[in-house]
Write a structure and sequence with these properties.
Blueprint: E1 2-4, H1 6-16, H2 25-32, E2 35-36, H3 40-48, H4 56-64, E3 69-73, E4 79-83, H5 87-94, H6 101-107, H7 113-126, E5 132-133, H8 134-145, H9 149-156, H10 164-168, E6 173-178, E7 181-185, H11 187-191, H12 199-214, H13 219-226, H14 230-242, E8 246-251, E9 254-259, H15 260-267, E10 275-278, H16 283-286, H17 300-303, E11 304-305, E12 309-310, E13 313-316, E14 319-328, E15 332-339, H18 345-356, H19 358-362, E16 365-370
Parallel strand pairs: 1-8, 15-16
Antiparallel strand pairs: 2-4, 3-4, 5-7, 6-7, 8-9, 10-13, 11-12, 13-14, 14-15
Helix pairs in contact: 5-12, 7-8, 8-9, 13-14
Length: about 375
Amino acid sequence: MKALTWDQVSAWRLTQHGLAPRVGFMDAVQRLIGVQAQVMSAAELALWARVDGLRPADVQGALWQERTLVKTWAMRGTLFLFAADDLPLVVAVRNAREGRYWVKSFESSGIFESEYQALLQAVPQVLGSEPMTREQLAVAVAKQTGIDTLQSALIESSWGTALKPSAFGGDLCFGPTQGRAVTFVRPRDWLGRWREIDPTAALQEVIRRYLRSYGPATPQDFSRWWGSVTLQARKIFTALEQDGELEVVEVDGWKAFALRSTLAPMENLSASGIVRLLPMFDPYTHGLLDYDPLLPSAFKRMVFRPQAWISAVVLVDGRIRGVWEHKIKSSSTLVTIHMFTLPTARVRKAIVTEAERLQAFLDTRVVVEFAAE
């Protein structure tokens, strides 16, 4: 069994996450297998952390003009940005395990299985490449199905719950906003291209890509990141190990799986001198729940907060060493840094330099302050 250190693992993850060195826009999105976009500004900042010269307008252009980026519900039932070419892969994995959870969630609104199935069939029939608001979609679905109660269910559904099953099936994604109203489109029509992928093959491919960017990892790590598929993940991890693609490694006493092809480059990396500011809900932070060497347990509550809120963090050599926040004012943006322990002069200078990168992104002067230690 090959032995690795957390220094090597951290350096590898920084590289694969496009944080050291930084990478191109679409390369960053694909390496991460999507960027959480429950808070859109946080998704834009996650890409800013990895792409030099990025502006918010670049993200909006990729979504609504170029259509190389797509916004939809996916892992953990939350909103994500994906490369348009990756959406069929993600949808196929969702279809690898279709349970009855969503039927149960609809029953509280008086929508039972027959109405639920009618909704799923109607959405791709009424949606196309022309964006529809939630209200327009609700009216169209009720008319298509002849079930009036579906109209109120779609309009009143909190957090888009009634629309998520259609998104998971690849029949719905977000379109450009109309004023303050969100809109929806049918991905196949909106993107103009689609490919059908076998669900099991898709899950294998996503696990490979996950391990390349987030590994070493366990099947439980993958399932927590994805939000389900624990049993299937275990089977595929085992199959890939038997085929020689995966190898069990030990990272300072912790055992996990790694892609065999990543081991040699991983052993030759160092994360020394890398300082990054990552936003709320950053993909890198999602992978550090149980790893005390990368995030000491004494500070986990400052990062993983109630109601699944994940703070913006200060990353030093791949380890979380503090949190930060920014407030935009009329003439400047104040960036406040809260370090867990007193930073060295080198780290402090690097944090200020990193914060100043925000000036071009936010188009405002940035002022950095360190909270009282």
